[in-house]
Every structure is written in C-alpha cells, then in structure tokens.
Batch of 3 targets.
Target 1
Amino acid sequence: MKIVILGSGNGSNAHAILKSFSENLLGQAVVKGIFSDVENSGILKYAEKYGVLGEYICAGESAFLKESYENDWINKIKPLAPDIIVLAGFMRIIKGKFISEFNNIINLHPSLLPSFPGLNSIQQAYEKKVKITGCTVHWVNEKIDDGEIIAQAPVRIMKDDSLSLLTKKIHAAEHMILPSVIRGLSNGEIEFPR
C-alpha cells in the first residue's frame, strides 16, 4: 500500500509514521513521498532524515488549495500512484478535483469529531471545559472534518491540565492512532470506502 503524506508544520505525525515504517510496524504500507505547502517545514526535514522523497509545492495564500495550484499538486503526486493520501497537519482545505483524483484520503484531527471541527480544536475543548477530548482519523470528503470516522483516541482532561499539557497529551495520542490506522488499512483490518 503506497502512501503519500501531506503536511504543513513540524511533522511530528509524519515522524511517527516514518518511525513506524522504519521499525516494520506498518504492515504492507510504504511511504512514497511527503509534500508540504511550507518551505523548509519540519515535515520535509523528516523526509530527508528517513530518505523519502520530500518536496515543497506552492499553494498560494488562501486557506483553500485553489484550482490554480491544485494541478501542480496533482501532477507531483500522481506519478507516485498512492493508494492512500494521509493529511498529517496539512493546513489547507482540499476540494473536489483533488478529492476525485485521489479518492482515498484520510485526515487526522485533534478532537473527537463531530465535536470541535476546524481550527483551534484543542483550545476550544480546553476552554469549554469538556472532560474528555482526543483525536480522530477520518476519511476526507467535501466538507471540513465531516468524513466517515475511521478511529478515535480519547484523552481525559484533568483538572490541573494546562492547554500546553493537553496539547502534548493529544499529540501523543495522535502519534499512536495514525500509524495504527495505516497498519489496519494495509493489512485489511480496516476497509477502504466503497
């Protein structure tokens, strides 16, 4: 199962995937490439560290991956023939053409969806004083953080947790759940959508 990872930030989730891959913990999954919309992002440094193709692709200033840039992304990714695209901290909203070109796309979101979709999810949960939050891996569709849920990992918010500590706890959960879902997809424990 060929994987392409898209990300925008420091790449801690990509690192969790690459580390699992290097330790033969991803089943039949192989990371074929990592692409980022941010030059010199941490995620590209992890690609280099693990000897995986890593490349910056311009995406413009909009939060959406606009059609004028969408073709560049499609043309760079398509030759790798990915079976699945993993959005790991990719801070762009992808739409119709990209989704129809690569129909097996998963996203990692730092809340227990459908609660707290969109931006600043950890902070929203913290400020609402919910007792349990967590992270979700879901299939990507046309709506933001709306696709079918594949897996969730709960994280308890303790009375003395700071926002910083809660963020670290959720990241730790993310680093376990995302490689686990990829392994499940690669060995058939988790089914691809029809």
Note: The two ends are 17 Å apart (CA to CA).
Target 2
Amino acid sequence: MSNRYELDPLHRNTPDAEFLDDLNRVAKSLEVPTVTISQYNEHGRFHASTIQRRFGSWRLSLERANLDQPVYANYSDEQLFDNLVEVWTHIGRQPRLAEITSRTSSISGDTYRRRFGSWRKALEAFVLWANQTEQMPPLEIEAQTAQRHRTPRRINDRLRFLVMRRDNFKCRITGRSPATDPSVVLEVDHIIPWDKGGETEFDNLQTLAKNVNIGKSNLGMSASDEI
C-alpha cells in the first residue's frame, strides 16, 4: 500500500458516453426506470456532481441517458423530521448527507436539499422543530387528567429524539451505542413506569438498548429498580 498522497482523478477527459453508460448501468442494477442523485452516489463509478457539471443538471443528465425523470413524493415537514429522528437514532449521532442512503433512510437526501435549500439548512430546521415545546390540545389534557395523568402515554418522536440526544445516543445502563455497534437498537422508556403514575416527561424518560428494555418489561420493573 502506497503512503504517498494522491489526488482523485478529475475525469475531464472522460467521454460523455462513459458517464451515460454508467447511469444506465446503475438503473439496470437497481431495476428502476430512473436514478436519483443519492442512488447514483451510492452505486455509481463517478460522483453525481461530476455528471451534473458535464451535462448542466441532473435532469439533463437523465434525459441524455434516456432515463425517466424521478418523481418525488410530496412529504410533509413532519414526515421529513420523523424520518430524521429514525436516521439520527440509527447512526447514533448527527448524520452526514453521504450517510442518507437506501440502507439508512426511507427518504433521499435530495428531498431534504430541495425542501430546505441544503443539507445543513435541513438539519437546522430539524433542530428547531425538535426543540419546540409541544402543547397538548385542551381536550387531550382533560382526558389524561381524568385518568390521573397529565401527559399521554405515547412518547412522540420529538421528545424521543431530545431524550436520546441528552443521553448521547447511548443506553444509560450498558453504555452501548449504534455509533460504535450497529447492532444496538435504542428505545426511550419511562423511568417510573406509566402504570405506576410515571409521566411522559423529559426527566422521567431514559434511553435504553432494546434488549435491556425488553428485559426490564419482562421483570416488571423500572430501570431505577434494576440499578
């Protein structure tokens, strides 16, 4: 293995046909009528930005390759943010755009960039959303009060993300994290159980590895009881 620094090739002399052939190769391998930028960056020989510079835009690149134009789903901001919660939790830290692939996300990175202008702006909007204090509708508050609870039992995605971020995306019992062990699945659970009067509030929630949380449920005790 060479220990010399080397620059990646610029592909200035690469024929147009080679780029177009590779676009078609990726489409064929994925068995799809078109290719998104994220799909190409994941499976292509070149980088999508190189092809975009050559042909002027991704749309024109697909047109030259006789591929269909991609049809993007009209996701709501809430759906985009809920998906980011899943991705961030899965990775165990702030995700990079290059990590938004079909293996980690159900929504492409291109969708976030089109909606917010850039990946950074998408993350900024997500953090603002996550940090908002969610107000329960008055009728829901009344219903929960009648059941001797101030809060609903369900932990919403925004609160789940905030708890995991506070706990550094690590299980509070084992210290394990998806960032260092991809097999780890994290969940958020009540410290004082709901059926024992515990509320769905930030200070009464904790991050646990799924296997720890299942074991806690089977024993019928809270994590604080275990410790």
Note: The beta strands are 186-190, 205-209.
Target 3
Amino acid sequence: MDAASRFGPAYYSRYYGNPRTAVTSRREMGRRGDFIASFANYLDLPVRSILDAGCGVGWLRIPLRRRFPRARYVGLEVSPYLCKRFGWVRGSLASFRPRAPFDLVICYDVLQYLDDRDAERAMTNLGRLTRRVLYFSALTQEDWDQHCDKSCTDGDVRLRPAAWYRERLESRFIALGGGLQLRRGVVTQLWELER
C-alpha cells in the first residue's frame, strides 16, 4: 500500500485521535521531547537545527521548540495528508538529502514501516543527516513479542530484531541509552557509564 493510501485521515484518527486506540498521547510525546532536549542540554551540545523524520502529527514540535526556540525545525513526512495539513516537507528518510546535516535528528517509530532495502538506506542516511545527536526508536520483534500493547500498536509493519538496528547504528553513533545516540566524533564530556 502506498503512503497516500496507508497514512491518511483514518490511520491518524485511529492511532492519534481516538484516546481508546491511540498509540501515544500529546502528554507522553511532550515528556519525550523534554527528555531529548534535556539530554542534549546536559551534554552542552548546541541545537540550532532539528529534523523530525516521520514527524506524524507533530507532537514533538512544541516541546522541542520550547526548549530550543531559535532552532530551525523541519518535519519530514511521507503522508501527503499530513504534509498538506501541517506543512511538513514531503519525503522519505531513505532518500532525503538536505543541504546540511541537523544538530538533532528524531527518528521515532519510522523504520518498521520501510522494507529492508529502504530501511538500510535510511539507516545509512541517518549518519549523513545527524551532526550531533540522534533520537532513534523503532518497533522491534522483541517489542512486539514482549512489550507493546497490541490493541493500539500497528502490527502491519516489518519486525526486525533490535540487534539489526544496533549493528547499523554503532558504526556512526555511540549509544547513550533511552534511544539517544551521539554522533561519533562529536566532542563532549561523556563518562564511561553514560555510554
């Protein structure tokens, strides 16, 4: 199914609009945005540009803009419906090529929607897109089997083991925990047990 058909009003109504079937909430995403921003601030990393890849309805935008008011925010989305509604940049993480990398890149629950070829390309592209910090999460096979509430989680995805993602991240990033990844080569005070 193409993006226009799959990621239309019905999808967002079910997973974001209806509190009984929503996969997340504004409140949860606000806490997530505050966590991401707090950790970047803790590491004393300037954030002047933010890419929210697969930004959906944009619930991370407000908390991130509140914490980084001077940062340029770009919402990247494949859904024509959301691009028209919110003014996001239409494109795929697998092929998005901006002029310059972003200080902070968010890739929250996107890659499970991509086939293996495009997921590989997107993982490689994350290394090009991220100047400093990446927040990365994807629904894994382990999450599906052990952690998620299947009544409000879209199971029509490609489930990969967590190791698949970790292997591809570790060549370009240092895992900091909580989904945060520091771009290799970025100079900051980072204690051994924070890795």
Note: Helices lie at 3-6, 9-17, 26-42, 61-67, 80-86, 116-129, 141-146, 162-169.
